[in-house]
Amino acid sequence: MAVAARGLRQFKRTVPAMIWPFIRAILVAGICFVIIYPTLTQLSTALKDVEDLFDPSVVWVPKTFTNVNFKRAAAGMNYWIALRNTLMVTVVTSVLQLFSCTYIGYGFARFRFRGRGVLFALVLLTMIVPPELIMVPLFLNFRYFNLFGLLGGTGINMIGSMWPYAFTSLTGTGIRNGLFIYLMRQFFRGMPGELEEAAYVDGAGPIRTYFRVMLPNALPVMLIVFIFSFVWMYNDVFFAQMFMPNADLMSRNMVRLPLVIRYEQGPEATLAHNAAIILYLLPLIVLYAWLQRHFVESVERSGIVG
Fold first, then answer.
1. Which of 48, 192, 213, 261 is least enclosed, having the fewest CB within 10 Å?
2. How many helices (H) and strands (E) does the chain have?
């Protein structure tokens, strides 16, 4: 009886421990299917010839592989020029946002000053207010940029250049900067104060302590902020249409692709659209493949979980 009781208790402990990994594997497989299946379908369609599109025997593997759809999509998107412009805007903006949001988050986390709570509440408010509400004043501000009236006249027209991105990024008011400041503040608040105290004892000031002590320990969350900023800037259409309306950018060219593609109404359009989606996702896939190990480690080390 004692042996049977011990076996029953061990069974009760083992079964839940086995069930949870099984349920977790099913959930992960389901999420992967939802994400990967459409991408694989689009890739298969992009590699098909027109005859394969109407052949009921062709499901996944085309009978005739072709790269014509990618050439047509690249021509319709002005792909290489748009990719160059997008990467330039995205990388510069992401680096500036990383610098400003890290510095602002560190100030909120480690320094006490009058009005800190009110200012941080305003930072959180930027996460709630939709950008459409400030579209008109934001556009007019950069269309007639005057720097508090110091430039005189009607100011400088910055629309059509990267300067609106640079100014909003440096001042911590760019895309999702409220979220980035919040992440950096929470991370710096969790760092032990003994690090700063040891630096002050060694004669370091606040700025030197920030660059020599705090930043090296914040690399995990900085990588997360950079990747999020890069992806959001890459996919942005709203600010790209407002700040650089005439520039060739990936997100804008994807939106207007049906208007410029040669065979808009025929089956070639379907094939080209699928090829364009693959070309659009390719830089993000390469970025993830390159940084995914560091990204996972950063999420684990920073404690940012869903």
1. 192
2. 16, 0
Between CA 286 and CA 227 the distance in angstroms is: 12
Neighbours of 177 (CB within 10 A): 22
Q: Does 31 map to a domain?
A: no
| 35-80 tens-digit pLDDT | 788 888 888 888 888 887 777 777 788 887 888 888 888 888 888 9
Instruction: Choose among 186, 162, 158: nearest CA to 174.
Output: 162
What b/e sequence results for 90-102 when a residue is b if at least 16 CB atoms lie within 10 Å of its CB, and e otherwise? beebbebbbebbb
d(CA 160, CA 171): 20
Number of independent structural domains in the chain? 1
Quick check: 66 and 48 in contact, CB under 8 A?
yes
What's the first-to-final CA gap in the chain, in angstroms? 46
Here the CATH number for the domain that contains residue 92 is: 1.10.3720.10
Q: Which amino acid is at 88?
A: M
Instruction: State the average pLDDT over residues 290-301.
Output: 64
Q: What is the pLDDT of residues 127-158, one digit of tens each?
A: 888 888 888 888 888 888 887 766 767 778 88
Q: How confident is the prediction for the chain on average, in pLDDT?
A: 81
Its domain, for residue 151, covers 78-264+280-301
Does the residue 48 lie in any domain? no
10 inside domain: no
- Residue 156 burial by Cβ neighbours in a 10 Å radius (0-12, 13-18, 19+): middle
**Within-domain flag for 70:** no
Give 117's contacts (C-beta < 8 A, 6+ positions apart). Answer: none
